[in-house]
Design goal:
The chain has helices spanning 13-24, 82-94; strands at residues 5-9, 27-28, 32-34, 39-45, 51-56, 75-78, 98-105, 111-116, 122-126. By secondary structure, the chain is an alpha+beta fold.
């Protein structure tokens, strides 16, 4: 078995789609719209096969929470090398994106940085 996709709610899937296309090389599939419910979504494909479904619909609660909390903590994207982690992190920071930590080597040997996407989801960039 493998993870086929993860899904996240967003207030602005167009902004989120552009973020993942620009910085992580995602390719968006055709936008799905259910006009009766006001539901819209994209599947974003990444190299390696895993996909991210980004969804929006009126009435979805948006709340500020205190980290850490139970639930999805982050998802990780492999950049391929330490140099690529450094370069992508610098690019994101220069473009005004929020860098939450790193680049650094963790106690268990990972080399990573953590950025927040436009909706505040934690994305770990690792080798």
């Amino acid at each position: 078995m493998h993870i086929e996709h993860l899904a996240i709610w967003s207030e602005d899937i167009e902004q989120l789609r552009a973020f993942y296309e620009t910085y992580f090389g995602a390719t968006a599939g055709q936008k799905y719209t259910n006009p009766r419910r006001g539901f819209q979504s994209y599947f974003l494909a990444f190299d390696g096969g895993c996909r991210l479904e980004i969804m929006q619909m009126p009435g979805i609660a948006v709340e500020e929470t205190i980290e850490p909390r139970a639930g999805l903590a982050h998802f990780a994207v492999s950049a391929g090398s330490e140099e690529a982690v450094d370069a992508l992190t610098r690019r994101l920071e220069q473009d005004g994106c929020r860098v939450s930590g790193g680049p650094r080597r963790t106690g268990d040997g990972y080399y990573e940085s953590v950025v927040l996407d436009p909706d505040g989801n934690r994305v770990e960039i690792t080798v």
